[in-house]
């Protein structure tokens, strides 16, 4: 006789005469974003004093406990053997019985990746050069980080350079680090994945990185023009990756900008003024005037930032005045900027203003190129799903917080490890006939398309198709639709039409769909990623599984140890039918009897 025990949060539960029916699910042929946990059917527990105390009297409307709204840890023992460990237990309802349910075998953190809708651009990043950003300029020759890809610009164009590319491995490691989930790939598939790269095709700015690298304009004195008007002499302490430079002039330095930018002017101007008895020291003013001019000195615009002092200190015979700034100034392209001040008096200064490039949404050639902000606009789960599908992997839970990616070929390769269930089958009929036999699989069509994202700019068709010879099922379906577009090939490298030239020969930047490539030395290539090639290399066992499918349902006697040690990627053998079968689903019943749904290999 089977004796089941249930422990919740380490406390033994009164189960009474309740049978705990368990449902074991394989995720073979299942979309990775739809991984199904093993689960129990509703477990009806008697309302004993012990059980009511364990649920913290949640059956009372006056109860204030959070027990019904939390997940709890559960273990199931059958005949003294733990067959379910560290399951999630939830309280469903309380009526005549206390109704609970279990789920296990899935990883909670991975479920959060699936449900959170986080994108690749939501990954965390810092401000370290080489790790979080690179300088986008002409490196002189191509490299693994700036691979040779045909982007549509002329190779000698000095206004642009090849975009950086990030490895798929780098992205997957970031997702793992942030989510706490471990991805385990087969070594041969990992070798292929490690060659995959994602070119960064956008030019998004990062305010976080800009804020970490301000440029400073230090005031070292004033050149007096008239009693109340002075030019501010500036010393530029620069950053070569920001698009403005200091140019000497008759009244100090001017700032020259190549591209339209917005600067954040932040800091304090300190003035030391001779004090007189009639001075209202708390009501002094200073205007910071920003004038823009072309290279000939013709002023195009003037803007004034007015400030009253926010602090004054009398230090006879002078008064020290402080003026605080935190403002934005917009500057046009190819213009010079002059800072001047207008105040009640002139004097020495030791002030420092910092100029920070404000978020312009798009960077320019020669600046800092942020990595994470320029990853494709793709959900993290869709990225993981795309990579796994391209190399023919399905996913199984692996330990407490891991995902094990399994190639379909493993099912055939593991025949040598197959578990013989021949003598455990409870035959339904006198003849050697399965209890139930179906000839179709869910979500399979006559034509199963594996597609890249549609793109009118891609020449050629790089989709693939796996056909099933079964006139009784729907005609076609999209089995896999990647979030990346395919690539044509020009000059032996991938072609992505990111740039073009207008009728005047001026360089134009174009928005394009995300791409995924292979790194071949210092070249980015698409050859080897056509779906026909991927299917030929990774889907031969899959093709056999979905063609001439036979799904057998049998009652099989499995004891507690066998349930505990189930491995969904190890097939079983039934001599009655002379074949190996993959586990799809197992439902436990009474007296060690299990209803097993199996797919013939």
Question: Which features characterize this protein?
Answer:
mainly beta, single chain, Jelly Rolls, 601 residues, flat, eleven-stranded antiparallel sheet, 15-stranded mixed sheet
- Poorly predicted spans: 220-237, 248-252, 345-350
- Main sheet makeup: 15 strands, mixed
Instruction: Provide mean pLDDT, rounded.
Output: 81
**Span from first to last CA?**
35 Å
As an assembly, this protein is: single chain
Rg, please?
34 Å
CATH class of one domain: Mainly Beta
Count of helical stretches: 10
The CATH architecture of one domain can be given as Sandwich
User: What is the overall silhouette?
Assistant: flat
Number of strands: 42
Secondary structure category:
mainly beta
Q: Which range does the strand content fall in?
A: 35-45%
How is this structure best described in words?
It contains ten helices and 42 strands. The chain is mostly beta strands. The longest helix has 12 residues, at 168-179. Mean pLDDT is 81; it is low at 220-237, 248-252 and 345-350.
Q: Brief overview, please?
A:
By secondary structure, the protein is mainly β.
Task: Detail the topology: elements first, then pairings.
Elements: E1 4-8, E2 11-12, E3 22-25, E4 38-40, E5 43-45, H1 49-54, E6 72-78, E7 81-94, E8 98-104, H2 108-116, E9 133-135, E10 165-167, H3 168-179, E11 182-184, H4 187-193, E12 196-199, H5 207-212, E13 215-226, E14 229-237, E15 244-249, E16 252-257, E17 261-274, E18 285-293, E19 299-308, E20 311-315, E21 318-331, E22 335-343, E23 352-357, E24 368-370, H6 380-390, E25 393-397, E26 402-407, H7 409-413, E27 419-420, E28 425-426, E29 436-438, E30 447-453, E31 464-467, E32 476-485, E33 488-490, E34 493-495, E35 499-501, E36 507-509, E37 517-520, E38 523-525, H8 531-538, H9 540-546, E39 551-557, H10 560-564, E40 572-574, E41 579-588, E42 593-600
Parallel strand pairs: 11-26, 27-40, 30-32
Antiparallel strand pairs: 1-2, 1-6, 3-4, 3-41, 4-8, 5-8, 6-7, 7-8, 9-24, 10-12, 12-37, 13-14, 13-23, 14-22, 15-16, 16-22, 17-21, 17-23, 18-19, 18-22, 20-21, 25-26, 28-39, 29-39, 30-31, 33-34, 35-36, 37-38, 39-42, 40-41, 41-42
């Amino acid at each position: 006789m089977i004796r089941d025990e249930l422990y919740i949060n380490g406390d033994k539960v009164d189960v009474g005469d309740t049978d705990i029916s368990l449902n074991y699910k394989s995720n073979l042929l299942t979309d990775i974003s739809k991984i199904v946990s093993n689960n129990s059917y509703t477990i009806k527990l008697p309302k004993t004093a012990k059980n009511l105390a364990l649920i913290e009297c949640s059956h009372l409307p006056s109860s204030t406990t959070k027990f019904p709204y939390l997940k709890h840890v559960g273990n199931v023992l059958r005949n003294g053997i733990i067959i379910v460990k560290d399951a999630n237990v939830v309280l469903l309802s309380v009526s005549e019985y206390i109704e609970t349910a279990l789920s296990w075998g899935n990883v909670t953190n991975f479920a959060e990746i699936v449900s959170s809708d986080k994108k690749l651009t939501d990954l965390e990043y810092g401000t370290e050069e080489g790790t979080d950003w690179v300088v986008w300029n002409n490196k002189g020759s191509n490299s693994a980080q700036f691979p040779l890809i045909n982007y549509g610009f002329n190779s000698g164009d000095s206004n642009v350079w090849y975009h950086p590319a990030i490895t798929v491995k780098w992205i997957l490691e970031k997702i793992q680090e942030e989510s706490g989930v471990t991805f385990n790939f087969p070594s041969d598939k990992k070798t292929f994945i490690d060659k995959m790269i994602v070119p960064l095709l956008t030019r998004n700015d990062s305010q976080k990185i800009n804020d970490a690298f301000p440029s400073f304009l230090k005031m070292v004195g004033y050149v007096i023009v008239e009693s109340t008007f002075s030019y501010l002499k500036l010393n530029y302490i620069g950053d070569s990756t920001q698009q403005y430079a200091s140019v000497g002039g008759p009244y100090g330095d001017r700032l020259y900008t190549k591209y339209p930018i917005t600067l954040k002017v932040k800091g304090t101007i300190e003035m030391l003024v001779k004090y007189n008895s009639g001075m209202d020291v708390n009501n002094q003013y200073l205007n910071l005037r920003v004038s823009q001019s072309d290279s000939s000195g013709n002023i195009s615009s003037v803007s004034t930032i007015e400030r009253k002092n926010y602090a004054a200190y009398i230090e006879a015979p002078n008064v020290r005045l402080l003026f605080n700034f935190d403002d934005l100034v917009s500057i046009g392209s190819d213009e010079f900027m002059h800072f001047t001040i207008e105040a009640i008096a002139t004097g020495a200064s030791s002030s420092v203003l910092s100029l920070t490039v404000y978020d312009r949404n798009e960077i320019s050639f020669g600046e800092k190129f942020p990595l994470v902000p320029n990853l494709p606009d793709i959900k993290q789960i869709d990225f993981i799903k795309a990579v796994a599908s391209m190399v023919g992997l399905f996913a199984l839970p692996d330990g407490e917080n891991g995902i094990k990616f399994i190639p379909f070929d493993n099912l055939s390769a593991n025949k040598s490890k197959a578990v013989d269930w021949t003598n455990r089958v409870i035959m339904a009929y006198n003849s050697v006939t399965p209890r139930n036999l179906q000839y179709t699989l869910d979500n399979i069509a006559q034509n199963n398309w594996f597609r890249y994202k549609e793109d009118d700019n891609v020449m050629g068709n790089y989709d693939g198709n796996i056909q099933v010879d079964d006139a009784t099922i729907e005609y076609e379906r999209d089995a896999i639709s990647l979030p990346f577009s395919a690539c044509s090939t020009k000059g032996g490298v991938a072609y992505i039409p990111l740039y073009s030239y207008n009728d005047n020969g001026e360089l134009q930047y174009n928005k394009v769909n995300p791409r995924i490539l292979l790194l071949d030395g210092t070249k980015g290539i698409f050859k080897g990623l056509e779906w026909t090639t991927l299917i030929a290399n990774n889907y031969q066992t899959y093709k056999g599984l979905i063609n001439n499918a036979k799904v057998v349902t049998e009652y099989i006697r499995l004891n507690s140890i066998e349930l505990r040690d189930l491995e969904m990627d190890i097939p079983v053998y039934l001599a009655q039918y002379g074949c190996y079968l993959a586990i799809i689903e197992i439902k436990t019943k009474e007296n060690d009897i299990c209803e097993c749904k199996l797919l013939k290999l």
